[in-house]
Amino acid sequence: MNRLLLGLSAGLALGLAIALGVRAGAAASPPPQEPAKEEGALLRLAFADRTPVWRTVNLEDKVPAMLVRAPEGQRFVLTDLWLLAHERLPVGVDEADRLWLECVSAGQRQVVFDQRVGELERPVRWQTGVAFGPGQEAWVAYTFADDQVKRPRRLHFSGYYEPVEPPLLDVRLAR
């Protein structure tokens, strides 16, 4: 019986060696040479260094108001606008009222949008935001459709400042 078990174990060991690709005398052969180390790929990481900004401004009928001026080296990204009634002088939002947003830079004005409130999704939200570059200003104005209404409208906005050239970190990947 011992001879049978010994024969089965030797056969099993030989079968495993063949299946695993081990050959006789493999333990005595020298280890394969490691290939020369090559430098890995260079990965450049840019950090999203964002500073949140939010504020509420009071808007008078047809009187422009500056929301922000982007500082040098930074851009301002406007992501959300909410139209709110003033708590002391509440007036509902009329679908025919107008809201405009402009970018002012070096004395030049560029209209971002000028639309009736009824045409805007409320609150106004942008997936990517509206970007204002260094030194540019974001201005808004609200116009009541009813000329008899002379009450302030509150506008809440949010966004963030980010560097125009974000900080970079170079990382060498191992091969």
Keywords:
mainly beta, Jelly Rolls, 4-stranded antiparallel sheet, elongated, disordered N terminus
Write a structural description.
- This protein has 175 residues and is mainly β.
- It has a single domain, classed as Jelly Rolls.
- Helices cover 11% and strands 46% of the residues.
- It is built from 1 helix and 10 strands.
- The protein has one helix at 2-20, and strands spanning 42-46, 51-59, 65-69, 74-85, 98-105, 108-116, 124-132, 137-143, 153-163, 168-172.
- The strands form 3 sheets. A 4-stranded antiparallel beta sheet has the order 2-9-4-7, with no helix packed on it.
- Strand 5 and strand 6 form a beta hairpin.
- 11% of the residues are buried.
- Residues 1-28 have low confidence and may be disordered.
